[in-house]
Amino acid sequence: MTASNTTTEPNRRFSVAPMLDWTDRHCRYFHRLLSQHALLYTEMVTTGAILHGGAERFLLFNEAEHPLALQLGGSDPQALAECARLAEQWGYDEINLNVGCPSDRVQNGMFGACLMADPQLVAQCVTAMKAVTSVPVTVKHRIGIDDQDSYEFLRRFIEPVAEAGCNTFIVHARKAILKGLSPKQNREIPPLDYERVYTLKQDYPELEIIINGGIKTLEECQQHLQHLDGVMVGREAYQNPLMLAEVDQALFGGDAVELEAMLLQICDYCEQQLASGAQLGWIARHLLGLYQGQPGARRFRRYISENAFQPGADVGVLKQALALVKPDLFAA
């Protein structure tokens, strides 16, 4: 088990969104090499998976990933409380409740975005989690669901959850359409309404309000930070990971990332993971966007896609792919 973490509450000025099938532990390790300060999130993990599928399988992470938040999916207060207790034992820096996912599978499990229609239940979940852990409990949600998309609806959701002790709300600035749109369409079709999130912060200055949805550049992040406490970036951080290499310097006043040293660390990590039974393809897939928009990017992606998933593929595949873009990286 990971040793219990005793660090202070994480800085949410910039975070990478929880993304199902994307932000696994290999992805998060890679992202941490690119930014020392960004708050990272796990994929959403259901309470049932943790309680019945084995905590180690779903909660294990690399110590280098800190600061790290666990995102939970569920609606049973006692099950969420038990998972929150385990999360603290495993050393997570934050526990986040998913009230934003619109997929049919999630709705059938009675959690995700559909919970916005029952703020009292969400408040009960927050109360139960906070009763068993000292780790910050946060909520990620939409600005509305279906035809319940007025600002008053959003306020009616926020207020009881805040009264239950949630001080941090991560707001995806789109409503969710629970019937008729896929999760992918729900990330694209409902229009963004950043102004509504700004208004929320103005009306509740005591709350920490983080914005999410459609953010693609650090310049946009800086604009949002003039109004809000933090920004969360999802697909852009994954598909164009070099964006993260500029985060520490641009948003935290830190040092620039030495990219060549980072690439050598990735290769070392791959060797360690392969020795433990991991498959190269499941690690290297997170690197496909590394050189997006740069010369050689297509050759880099193709080489990994064609070779990393082959039986017995080793770190030499990754080094050869990197050499297509950085010929001198592994020169003697």
UniProtKB/TrEMBL annotation:
Question: Is tRNA-binding given among the entry's keywords?
Answer: yes
Superkingdom field: Bacteria
Pfam families, alphabetized:
Dus
- Domain named DUS-like FMN-binding: residues: 16-312
Record carries keyword Repeat: no
* PANTHER family noted in UniProt: FMN-LINKED OXIDOREDUCTASES SUPERFAMILY PROTEIN (PTHR42907:SF1)
Question: What protein name is recorded for this chain?
Answer: tRNA-dihydrouridine(20/20a) synthase
Give the organism the record lists. Motiliproteus coralliicola
